[in-house]
Specification:
Chain lengths: 168, 185
């Protein structure tokens, strides 16, 4: 009776070991597959880089000194940071926020039922390892996967960084 | 009284032999099951791997097509030279270019179009001509009939001379779309 019991226990231990071994191997495979999939986040960043380059060159309706010396979007970020006013009397930051929102809505179809679910566009000034936010515009749901990029523009003693995240 | 003389040793040997055979059978079954399991896992893994390779090929083709479109926008026929801008297309120059038929076979494309993305609220759907320029949305440079396939696109800045308020260079946001046999292959 005792010998039989011991044999049964040994078989159970063997079975459990086999199950554990198989489970570990299976987990390793799943891990490898998931790790390979996560690389797709950067796949379309090139398109975002192209978009940001065009975005920075866009001629806005804000001229800080005189008309027709209209600032482009990249310059307007600096004007907003320095608290400047446009010749029209509007605040540079207000123009920046309004026009960047309109540009993004026209360039990418963003919505609940669309492929792109949301975006996050922001600019900040980085100097002496400090970071000051200039503006942030976002819409929709940005909790899932995303594609994104950043552009740099030199400032007086630091750099203006504009970043865009498109979520899907 | 006769005592039966039974040889139990033979019986025990037979029983042990049978139990050993069952154990070998069990082990063989486990080994076969394990082999089958690993075969399935490898099969699933390679299916994933092959589908990833196919995706990578498609992505690489798309990227190559995008780069070609981008390279096109940097060529002498398109580039905006008034400012240092690698991503800018001279919209005035391209309007004139679209009227010249000699360029139809120059790039080996079946379709080449420039679309204005922003601002375009009041000009939606209007094709550019000399009469409505710059208040128009799209400019077709090459449009050969037939199957165009999927057009590849890249964002560009569309820059032009704006004569309003004393005159200045104005850059807007646009997209170059191209398709053809040479693209993405």
């Amino acid at each position: 009776m005792r010998i039989n019991n011991k044999k049964g226990q040994e078989e159970m231990v063997g079975f459990v070991l086999v199950v554990i071994l198989v489970a570990i191997i299976f987990l390793v495979f799943i891990g490898i597959i998931i790790r390979q999939d996560s690389g797709s986040i950067d796949k379309d960043s090139r398109e975002i880089v192209q978009f940001l380059e065009s975005f920075e060159k866009y001629t806005t309706s804000c001229a800080v000194g005189f008309e027709p010396d209209f600032s482009d979007m990249g310059e307007l970020v600096g004007d907003c940071y320095n608290g400047k006013l446009c010749v029209s009397g509007e605040n540079a930051c207000a123009v920046l926020e309004r026009e960047s929102k309109e540009i993004l809505e026209e360039s990418f179809s963003i919505g609940h039922e669309n492929y792109y679910k949301g975006y996050e566009l922001g600019s900040y000034y980085e100097f002496d390892e400090k970071r000051e936010d200039i503006f942030l515009s976002s819409t929709g749901n940005c909790t899932g996967s995303f594609i994104g990029a950043e552009t740099l523009r030199s400032g007086f003693d630091g750099v203006f960084i504009t970043s865009l995240k498109i979520c899907f | 009284m006769r005592i039966l003389d039974v040889d139990y040793s033979n019986f025990r040997r037979k029983k042990m032999k049978r139990s050993g055979q069952i154990k070998i059978q069990q082990m063989a079954f486990v080994l076969v099951a394990l082999m089958l399991f690993f075969a399935f896992v490898f099969l699933i893994y390679f299916t994933f791997k092959i589908s990833n390779v196919e995706d990578s090929v498609t992505t690489l083709k798309e990227e190559e097509a995008q780069e070609l479109v981008r390279k096109l926008s940097g060529s002498a026929e398109f580039s905006f030279s008034a400012e240092d801008c690698s991503n800018c297309v001279d919209f005035d120059k391209v309007l004139i270019l679209s009227e010249r038929r000699n360029y139809e076979d120059f790039w080996g494309l079946d379709y080449l179009e420039i679309q204005k993305i922003y601002p375009n609220s009041e000009i939606s759907g209007k094709e550019c001509t000399r009469q409505n320029y710059p208040d128009c949305e799209s400019l077709k440079i090459i449009d050969n009939s037939g199957d165009r396939g999927i057009a590849s696109g890249a964002f560009v800045s569309l820059c032009r001379w704006e004569s309003d308020k004393g005159g200045y260079f104005k850059c807007e946001i646009g997209r170059v779309l191209a398709s053809g046999e040479g693209i993405g292959k």
